[in-house]
Amino acid sequence: MHRYVQCTLVQIFNDQKILLGMKKRGLGVGMWNGFGGKVEAGEDLKTAAARELKEESGLEVLTSNLMEVGLLLFEFVNSGVVLEANVFRAVEYKGVVTESEEMRPCWFDIKDIPYKDMWVDDVDWFPLMFKQKLFYGFMKFTEKNEMFSQELKVLENVEEF
Ligand SMILES: COc1nc(N)nc2c1ncn2[C@H]1C[C@H](O)[C@@H](COP(=O)(O)OP(=O)(O)OP(=O)(O)O)O1
């Protein structure tokens, strides 16, 4: 049986740079990623995305400045957990980038993304995000977090999520 968990993943852009965070604990520790986490009871997706961004990076974003860019389902077959990651991008935000208990943020040029220190799926969908394509993906992972199956497609509009 599967257990679906809604979560968010926010990508912050400044011209040709993207802000990534080095995960300091928990799922994905030791890897660079966008900012996000589980949606809490009673929260809508964008409110959860803005909260996680603030908690992990110190940056504040208005929910109206969060643009949907993709939906990714990560199934961890051993546990039966399926993370439904709702991916957003933002180019308008305020605040000071600040290291948190969970993430150490750093700006990267979009031509120099540290894919070798990121989840293996990222190398396939980051380029779609950089081309401003809307995408859907379904990836399956073993108990060692190795990806063994991947479906990834470009969508026309968010209604196809
Ligand atoms: C499996 O492949 C993944 N790829 C990418 N790029 N991102 C992933 C993958 N699996 C999970 N994620 C992202 C999605 C979310 O943004 C976070 C989930 O993080 P976490 O489990 O730390 O969520 P929190 O609510 O912050 O957790 P705490 O309970 O520790 O606060 O990872």
From TrEMBL:
Q: What class of enzyme is it?
A: hydrolase
Q: Name one Pfam family in it.
A: NUDIX
Q: Which keywords fit this entry according to its UniProt record? A: Cytoplasm, Hydrolase, Magnesium, Metal-binding, Nucleus, RNA-binding
- A GO CC term? cytoplasm
- The membrane-spanning stretches of this chain are none
The record ties this protein, via SUPFAM superfamilies, to: Nudix
InterPro entries given for it?
A: 8ODP, Nudix_hydrolase, NUDIX_hydrolase-like_dom_sf, NUDIX_hydrolase_CS, NUDIX_hydrolase_dom
GO MF term set: 8-oxo-7,8-dihydroguanosine triphosphate pyrophosphatase activity; dATP diphosphatase activity; metal ion binding; phosphatase activity; RNA binding
Q: What interactions and quaternary structure are annotated?
A: Monomer.
Family membership noted in the UniProt record: Belongs to the Nudix hydrolase family.
- Its biological function? Oxidized purine nucleoside triphosphate hydrolase which is a prominent sanitizer of the oxidized nucleotide pool. Catalyzes the hydrolysis of 2-oxo-dATP (2-hydroxy-dATP) into 2-oxo-dAMP. Also has a significant hydrolase activity toward 2-oxo-ATP, 8-oxo-dGTP and 8-oxo-dATP. Through the hydrolysis of oxidized purine nucleoside triphosphates, prevents their incorporation into DNA and the subsequent transversions A:T to C:G and G:C to T:A. Also catalyzes the hydrolysis of methylated purine nucleoside triphosphate preventing their integration into DNA.
> Would you tell me the protein name for this molecule?
Oxidized purine nucleoside triphosphate hydrolase
